[in-house]
Amino acid sequence: MTTSAPAALLGEEPIARADGLSVDDLTVRYGQTTAVDRVSLDVAPAETVAVIGPSGCGKSTTLRAVAGLVGAATGTITLTGRNVTTSDPARRDIGLVPQNYAVFPHMSVAANIAYGLRARGVDTTARRQRVRDMLELTHLSDLADRRPDQLSGGQRQRVALARALAIRPDALLLDEPLAALDPQLRGGLRRELSSMLAATDCATLIVTHDQREALSLGSRIALMREGRLVQFDTPRRLWDDPADAFVADFLSGAVLLEAERDHDHAVALDGLWRVPVRDLQVRPTAHGATRLLLRYDSLTVTEPHDAPDDGSALIAQVDHTEFTGESLHLTVRAGDHTLGVRVAPDTRVGRSVALTVAPGRATLLLPPA
Amino acid sequence: MAVRASARDRVAFAPAWLAALPALVLVCLFSVYPVLIMVANSLGWGRPPADGGPTLEHYLRAFGSTAVLDALINSALIAGGAVLVILVVAVPVVLHQADDDRKGRGSGTTDALLTLPIALPGIIIGFFAIVLTGRTGLFGLAWDGFSGLAYTFSGLLIAYMYFCLPRILGPLRGAAATLDSALTESARTLGASRARVFATVTLPLLLPAIIETGGTALAVALGGYGTVATLSEGVRLLPLNVANELTTGYRLAASSTLAVVLAAMAVLALVLGRALSALVRRAVAS
Lengths: 369, 286
Hints:
The complex is a heterodimer. Chain A is α+β, with helices and mostly antiparallel strands. Chain A folds into two domains: 4-93 and 169-240, Rossmann fold; 253-366, CATH 2.40.50.140. Helix content of chain A is 25%, strand content 34%. The two termini of chain A are 45 Å apart. Chain B has a single domain, classed as Orthogonal Bundle (MetI-like fold). In chain B, helix 8 packs across helix 10 (194-223), helix 9 (181-189) packs antiparallel against helix 10 and helix 12 (238-247) runs antiparallel to helix 13 (252-284). The two termini of chain B are 44 Å apart. In chain B, 34% of the residues are buried. The A-B interface holds A 67-69, 88-92, 94-96, 98-100, 102, 104-106, 115-116, 119-120, 147-149, 160, 163-164, 167 and B 180, 182-183, 185-193, 196, 200-201, 204-205, 284-286.
């Protein structure tokens, strides 16, 4: 954008990337409640960043602040070099796809898509052409004259997407894009959405509470909890090297235990469990502490009296057992520690179990020496 | 086989109208029967010797009388005008309230204050008007122009606006609350100004409710007797004439005629409001 040069001369702009969207130190308050607490993230042009977290973590508020629908208490929002923190939502050049799609019920599909172009005073010829292009991109050409109540949820989502993209936004915001759709349809629509997003070159921010959606749609994931940004990295890095136990649990249902390395053993749970390092994958971590990462296929269960007594098996009481299809979720107690672990669904579980690490299936995260 | 099945159905499930029967009896007794009598009286089918057979004479006399015509026109102007003004005032108010409710800032006190007049009989509202803008009214002390305003056309209009306020705010508020805020927010992010969003999204979606509420309020305002009875010095409205024909000289036929005209106007307002609203709803939304 041409405005970046004079803005830079004023010397007040944060050092932001010239293109894309960047959020610096954003805080949003609702009265006394801090909904978003000093969150910083950036989205490159043509990149898709997924903001994920449990409900109430501030992810939707972050999106609304970027769209200008709630005010920022502190921080800066920069879009293609323009500081838009206090701009009117109508002047931000942001395409918003709300959770329920908010397709105008009193307008045809084509009129919905043309809405932003009319508001911007685009002349008729250019407007018609742009609407045709958008209908084509979202495979809605045959439905151009339909009313929204004659459309399926997936089609409505595409109308909202076409309407948002028609104004050539600098950033595209999608709030829970698949949450309103039938679970059986989500997989296919997620891939469809992903390919449509790939065809655009604007910075895209997707808010979701669904791990699978975040992992598959986001080229980077920002994980939030209680208004704060917990980890912001590629899906692979979040999966392999979670910042804390919450990230591990939320993203993949994995257990992350604090551990210490004692020569050939990783010691966890205050010395109750000594896992031989030769049974573990060892990977460096960027998060400064030695930890043991256990996934649902990391552990095997044996009867306590069959277990080796060298400390490599964790003897634990079973408090609760839950069958979830792909695994068996056990809540177990060992000493003062309670942890939820996933084991193979066909495991036989008594009142107490001995948990051992399946060789090569668990990971020891070690900070670089 | 099919015949026997249907016979069994008839035994097993009592027809729906049977459940509605008590209500139907009440409606007939207190609504249909009096209306029939009223219509009969107005057409000269009343009890002889007062009435001598079917005639349109009462209607011809009513529409030939300037007093009745004046009252008719005044009724339409004052009820219609009050409803229109209050609709214009109410739309921004209910939109603002809906916005506040969404942000959890809704105030019960404002609600109570705005809808309080619904509990007040028309006579009390007329009394309010006298206290404030009567000949020795409170506002008259401040400016002489207010003194005696209550008995004029504008005074009545203001009193009727007060009368209509809660009857319009209440239903419209419900309609405004159902408007999805994501619609206006999306329109804003697409680049539309507040005014444009109002004209292209909010108003079209609220229009059916506005028309229906207006029709109902108009029907109620046309029949309102208390307010104009209290302020019945200068301007005369139709309900007053109906009562007058009865109380002064017990002219049952003339009174019935005016009552039928008044009822017809009110029902027409109600039905037109509903019908137009349904039409607009079909044209505007889903």
